[in-house]
Amino acid sequence: MIVNALAVMFILAPSAGGSPNDASPPVITPVYSPSFPSTGWYRGNVTLNWSISDPESSWTSSGCDAKTYSADTPGTKVTCSASSAGGDTSSSVWIRIDKTAPTVTVTPSRVADADGWYNHALTVGFSATDLTSGVVACSPAVQYTGPDNASATVSGSCSDTAGNTAAAALSFKYDGTPPTLFALSKKLGNRSAQLAWRKSSDTAVIEVARAPGRAGAGETVVYRGNETMFRDSGLIVGRTYEYRIAGIDMASNRAEQKLDIVATGALLTPAPGARVKAPPYLVWTAVKKATYYNVQLVRGGKKVLSAWPSRPGFRLRRTWSYNGRRYRLRPGMYRWYVWPGRGKITASRYGGLLGSSTFVVTG
């Protein structure tokens, strides 16, 4: 019995490599510092160590030394291997590091409308590239509609899978408000028209277009500049002209108003063929050195009035006397004439006919 006991003890004694009762290999557990992130990506240095456990026998290991990783990497595989009497085992992990934020690109939906300025709604989008963990999200596109600002800014950001975020902004000039034109006026001359206006301080240029235009054109730009007045000449007496006066700012916003005129010759008011209800005030261009004028009014081919005002204007009445007869301003068409005179009226020193025109009394 003693011999048998010793034999049993000899059989159960562990060998130099471990216990003959070790039925399982070592357990290997990776240990991270800092702890493993939920995204699977580190944004800074990480130290990897290994915990190896085999309570039944001693073990040896390979590739299990602690190591710190600092460089960006889309994935570095690290393997720790261990052996014991219970067998061989290994554990592999991936180290992923991304310290670098994405590169953000800001993209406007179009080029500037005029001279670097945008003058209506602008959409600004955001995109990015990330060579390591990849882009996960960017700010949604932004539509800018104001306020007007020479230094407008739209900002956004993008993030990568590791949680790095980068912001970017687009700076631009924005003006969606047209300038202002006001106090438009017109003054007729002999085959000419003088237009005047006032403008807001943000008006960069004034453009005047006329229809009909010059040389048979339907419309012609007859003025472009920064003044507050323009005189157009060479007009055809009796023709109706439409002038479009536009104020344009640096962003090409336009404010436009219209003026219509009927061109006159030397006889200015009323315009040729004008329809009036009240007795009109007849106005003509002054003649140098003229001391008086002779105004004659004709109705139905018959002269019904002759007057000698000293100034280039004459107010008609509802009724008047001429050559011993009483006349009334009845409905119908009237033609009037003007001659300039010099010296005394009794001398009857007249110049050439200044002009003639018509108006219609509507009653």
Task: Describe the protein's topology.
Elements: H1 2-12, E1 27-33, E2 46-53, E3 59-62, E4 67-69, E5 73-84, E6 87-97, E7 103-108, E8 117-118, E9 122-129, E10 135-138, E11 142-144, E12 149-160, E13 165-174, E14 181-189, E15 192-199, E16 205-211, E17 220-225, E18 229-233, E19 240-248, E20 254-262, E21 267-269, E22 274-276, E23 281-284, E24 292-299, E25 302-307, E26 313-315, E27 319-322, E28 325-328, E29 332-342, E30 349-350, E31 355-361
Parallel strand pairs: 8-13, 22-31
Antiparallel strand pairs: 1-2, 2-4, 3-5, 5-6, 7-9, 9-11, 10-12, 12-13, 14-15, 15-18, 16-17, 16-19, 19-20, 21-23, 23-26, 24-25, 24-29, 27-28, 29-30, 29-31
Structure description:
The protein has 363 residues and is mainly beta. The protein has four domains: 2-97, Sandwich (Immunoglobulin-like); 103-174; 181-262, Immunoglobulins (Immunoglobulin-like); 267-361, Immunoglobulin-like (Sandwich). Helices cover 3% and strands 55% of the residues. It contains one helix and 31 strands. It has one helix at 2-12; strands at residues 27-33, 46-53, 59-62, 67-69, 73-84, 87-97, 103-108, 117-118, 122-129, 135-138, 142-144, 149-160, 165-174, 181-189, 192-199, 205-211, 220-225, 229-233, 240-248, 254-262, 267-269, 274-276, 281-284, 292-299, 302-307, 313-315, 319-322, 325-328, 332-342, 349-350, 355-361. The strands form nine sheets. Strands 22, 24, 25, 29, 30 and 31 form a six-stranded mixed sheet that branches. Strands 8-13-12-10 form a four-stranded mixed sheet, with no helix packed on it. Strands 17-16-19-20 form a four-stranded antiparallel sheet, with no helix packed on it. A hairpin with a 4-residue loop joins strand 12 (149-160) and strand 13. The longest helix has 11 residues, at 2-12. The radius of gyration is 50 Å and the shape is rod-shaped. The termini are far apart.
